[in-house]
Amino acid sequence: MCAIAGIFNVPFDEKILKKMQRTMRRRGPDGQGIYVQNNHALLHTRLAIVDPAGGAQPMALQWAGERYILVYNGELYNTAELRGELESLGHEFQTHSDTEVVLHGCAEWGTAALDRFNGIFAFALWMERAERLLLARDRMGVKPLFFQQKGRGLLFASEIKTILAHPSAQPVLTAEGAGEILLLGPGRTPGSGVFRDIREVEPGCFGIFEKGILHLHRYWSLKDREHRDSFEDTVAQVRFLVTDAIRRQMVADVPIGMFLSGGLDSSLITAVCAERLHAEGKTVDTFSVGYADNARYFVPGKFQPNSDEDFIGTMETAVGATAHHTILTPEDLSAALETSTVARDLPGMADVDFSLLALCGDIRQSVKMALSGECADEIFGGYPWFRDPEVRAVDGFPWAQNTRYRMMFLHPDLREKLDGEAFVQERYRATIRETDVLPGTDPAERRMKEMVNLNYRWFMQTLLDRKDRMSMYQSLEVRVPFCDYRLAEYLYGVPWAFKDYQGEEKGLLRRAMEGWLPKKILHRKKSPYPKTWHPRYRALMAERLETLLAEKNAPLFDLVDRRAAEDLLHGEDTWPWYGQLMGVPQTMAFLLQTDFWLRHFSVKLEY
Fold it and tell me: Catalytic residue positions?
């Protein structure tokens, strides 16, 4: 994986280019390149996973009277098939990198090439003769791509921090941006970059920038279709798609590893990979995270019924893994609060971010690429809110049904300018309206499709943001096989009764993958990414929040009501702030992150 950036029709000099490129180095420590033509520039830094000797960027191609320049961040999983097809059309290749296949594919097919790509990517392709720029992002939104229009100019980059490194880009937070942080965060509206005028190319979209104007287009979305396969045929197709996605995503010219939590999704990826690695005479490296004194303090509950340790051990034994464990203390988590905020460019998921950042750092000591189990719950309907009729019936985001509570944290000046309920509901309803459902669909089935689209457009993007920023900050590539768009497309049309086979969460996936896992793992109840239950963590967050409250001019309290933050110190866990894991300690951490973020980026409040 890599980092990309570009400047078009916005003034720059060598100093600015170098400043921007420095912000990209953690995503790409293995190489860097810059292309400059008149008032345009493309920047790249590389993390070499496939064809380390080739694949340098920016990469150029002369074809059919046009000269193409590409900067690309991603991985194609059907590279061999596309290369063969392009060779039959007269294209010649100098490397075996997927970057060159993307370049030739776009030269041959234009934007129609996006329909052929199976992978995770964000790229920019400049056509010198036509003076046209193509920006594109993968269907599922695994790789990021932000931009800011400056009159008839354009800045774009893999991360917000790179755009802000240009002197013309100002870190301004409007009332709407504040709503993104306090009413939706750590999620955000599709396409929003939170800061004023900074936006994101949405998943499944591309943009054409020409003559100073950027036009955005959607080339893919979840579409409903009549499902004609029998249950057993569906099981067989799911088995094929899951195993094929995992095997395709193992392709690398460097050693690889597996995230392992002992849950269904990461265990399936580990088992499928282990089969192939064993056939090659290799062992599988697994990486797991845990917390000091977890056995003593873990509290089972509705969202986290059991801890991971025993299940991880079962899978390690089953596949003969070379096991790596990261054990974190409350002090470790507290120390990573600021770094994870810098990595994400925005306040995030508290200790879930902190621990993932530390885990990725440890993994990077052994391998440069790993596979992870994110996104199975979104497409198979594994989260508790898919299965709780009361939660499903509420007209709002199922993972954050707490808007009134969140509104208490708005600074009084902000509360006067932002109708919190309307702000959140407008975004929820827009997603519901765009959900594609066949005419005549049963209301209950319609609601399940709405739930899938809500999760795809919102909750999944939050998790993918977390995974991308925490891993790439550590120069680690992470692939997510359950984000294979073929799997998402197929499952969207599958009726809920199939997905809910035998009344078990992700019952269809469990049925499809019988024989791959020990029964203890195959039927383990859903448990989310682990958080710490250690009381010392809450005490540390409370101590830091108390210190902040004593600071007269803390930036946080220009955005947040000081009294609400004081009340939080003595609050009890109710419905989480976000998702399943952000209770009171994590909400404290979120506020601390927000204060640090305001300082670090010198954010200007304008509302």
Answer: 2
